[in-house]
Amino acid sequence: MPVRLQRYIAFLSVILFIGKLWAWYLTHSVTVLTDALESTVNVIAGFIGLYSIILAAKPRDANHPYGHGKAEFVSSAVEGSLIFIAGLMIIYEAVDQLIEPKPLHKLDLGIYITGAAGVINYVAGIYAEREGKKHRSLIVESAGKHLKSDAYSTFAIIVGLILLLVTGWQWLDSVVALIFSVVILVTGYKLVRRSLAGIMDEADEQILTDVIHTLQQYRKPQWIDLHNLRVIQYGDVLHIDAHMTLPWYYQVRDAEREIHALEELIKEHYANKVEMFIHIDACMPYQCHLCAVPECSVRQAPFQTQLPWTLENVLYDAKHGSGE
């Protein structure tokens, strides 16, 4: 699904780029050029994204034991960089137009063409962002966000063009372009920042919170604690490493059963695209008051309360209760 959707996005970006380029040719407006240049980025990023999704979908191999999912982060970083460069180019053109104004033509027709492109961008952006989140594809989600931000810029640009058409104040053309060049620069920065975070394996607090909530909601009494949890997403595959404490008297087959139960729980909530590495720890006497296992014959202290798993206590490499 992500591959097919990204293919549509790339094709759509070409059509809209041609339309906006035509509008700029007709009007000679640097404000319209703002939209056209951002669409240039859409075209490049669309095809880079398509290639990256195809690459990220390849199964892991000997040279890439965690798969090829990080290609999505590289693609998103390139897209953000191109957006940033486009913002700088718009600033240059806007300042040049402000210093040496050039005559504008057929603004009404330019407004119609630009407006139609904006509506198409917005609808496509909402759909792409929703599907990107659904399939956990950073490229498709980033493309959706970019299409929506492009649409917002287009709508505001249309307002500026209408004011320009009504008032005849040509300097508005450059001012509107300068304002939205800042928006474009911020958009590019955010995409680059998010991509670098993925490349550097920065923890995604939202994913971590979601995983912890799911595990806590369906937690079994014999799962005494979970610690040293690490969650990384490469493409649409979620990699989870953790230490889980079980009763010390469990045999290997018992521990294996609990690991499989944990894996199935996560896979059920993440479309089966999960790779888990679980290290089993044996419980210690100081954890008895946190252990909810019923009728434990070797219990050395009465059960008091089960410590809920939270973002604060599952990330550290220490058994729960060891610091008390």
Characterise this structure.
Helices cover about 60% and strands about 10% of the residues. It is mainly α and about 325 residues long. It folds into 2 domains: about 1-200, Alpha-lytic protease prodomain-like (Up-down Bundle); about 205-290, Alpha-Beta Plaits. The chain has a 3-stranded mixed sheet, covered by helices on one side. β2, α8 (about 250-270) and β3 form a beta-alpha-beta unit.
Task: List the topology elements.
Layout: H1 2-27, H2 30-56, H3 71-99, H4 107-134, H5 138-167, H6 171-199, H7 205-217, E1 225-234, E2 237-246, H8 252-269, E3 274-282
Parallel strand pairs: 2-3
Antiparallel strand pairs: 1-2
Helix pairs in contact: 1-2, 1-4, 2-3, 2-5, 2-6, 3-6, 4-5, 5-6
Summing up helix and strand content along with how strands pair, one would put the structural category as mainly alpha
Radius of gyration: 27 Å
- Main β-sheet, spatial strand arrangement: 1-2-3
Number of helical runs?
8
Helicity level: 55-70%
Average pLDDT number: 79
- Beta content comes to 5-15%
CATH architecture level-2 label of the largest domain: Up-down Bundle
Strand and helix order:
HHHHHHHEEHE
Silhouette: elongated
Number of strands: 3
- The CATH superfamily label of the largest domain reads Cation efflux protein transmembrane domain
Distance between the termini: 50 Å
